[in-house]
Write a structure and sequence with these properties.
Strand content: 25-35%
CATH topology of the largest domain: Ribosomal Protein S5, domain 2
Helix content: 25-40%
Radius of gyration: 19 Å
Number of helices: 11
Number of domains: 2
CATH class of the largest domain: Alpha Beta
Length: 295
């Protein structure tokens, strides 16, 4: 029942064609320090501190309570100190990081003694898909799949020099709303095209080959249907494959867009080019970060 410390990275899922299958961990973190207390309290700093510090409608606290109750464990009140660097509602894996934190806290303070695999499987169940949770838990580029009640996942270490530029509008969007834009079925031609690009994208990370990334990150299954609600995407997609910008894709379900670049210098160029293309589209924020290695 001693102090417990967590550091969980942001993630960008789908990466174009890898819908619900691929995600990339980023060096933006959710830090949680916890210890037993007489009542549940939260002190938060960083992004969206007002949301993170609330004790009502707080996903971290609610998930922690629900897991303990579901497994017949007494609720252990905690003093939580949260430092958040992950944008909320932008497709950067904030809910996966919070749910993993809650599950790890429940396992520790509720004496569930869950393995890392069990915690990941529970997070994937709560999320409804394994991609963000797997990358947040394992780091790197992660390919994942659900098999029964288990998550099978493999992490690939990204090149150290590559950078992610996250381009965000001023308004977030719920993943549930973004998923509602997708069709119920697809043509075989489109499915095959995505399968080819998922294979190419995974191989490109493994071989650290940026030359094929623009092709590998193209998508036909979700991005075309989300473009109207994510207006940054059609403006930024033409940057892929030029000026050190290896590829461009929605970050998760959007509305943020990820520009994958081959170096810190290319990331700066990408920011400047993106700013020009987005001129007149309203307030936009840029975040440049390193890619998280395997954890």
């Amino acid at each position: 029942m001693n102090e417990f410390h967590l550091r969980l990275p942001a993630t960008s899922a789908n990466l174009g064609p890898g819908f619900d299958a691929l995600a990339l961990a980023l060096k933006l973190y959710l830090y949680v320090d916890a210890e037993p207390a007489s009542r549940m309290t939260v002190e938060a700093t960083g992004r969206s501190a007002d949301i993170c510090s609330a004790t009502e409608n707080n996903l971290l606290i609610e998930t922690y309570r629900e897991i303990l109750a579901a497994h017949g464990r007494e609720l252990i009140p905690l003093q939580l100190n949260v430092q958040n660097e992950i944008p909320l509602g932008m497709g950067c894996g904030s809910s996966a990081a919070v749910r993993l934190a809650a599950l790890a806290l429940a396992s520790h303070f509720g004496d569930l003694d869950w393995s890392r695999d069990r915690i990941l499987a529970e997070a994937a169940r709560l999320e409804g898909h394994p991609d963000n949770a797997a990358a947040c838990w394992l780091g790197g580029l992660v390919a994942s799949a659900v098999e029964g009640d288990r998550v099978r996942a493999v992490s690939i270490a990204p090149p150290a020099l590559w950078r992610a530029v996250i381009v965000m509008p001023d308004q977030p969007m719920a993943t549930s709303a973004s998923r509602g834009m997708l069709p119920e079925s697809y043509t075989r031609k489109d499915v095959v095209a995505n399968l080819q690009r998922v294979a190419l994208l995974t191989a490109a990370f493994a071989a650290q080959n940026a030359d094929v990334m623009a092709t590998a990150m193209a998508d036909r299954l979700h991005q075309p249907f989300r473009a109207d609600a994510c207006p940054l995407l059609p403006r930024l997609l033409p940057l892929a494959g030029n000026d050190g910008i290896a590829g461009v894709a929605l970050s998760g379900a959007g509305p943020a867009v990820l520009l994958l670049t081959v170096s810190e210098e290319a990331a700066l160029v990408a920011r400047n080019l993106a700013a020009r293309r987005l001129d007149g589209l309203g307030k936009v924020e840029f975040l440049t970060c390193e890619l998280e290695n395997t954890l």
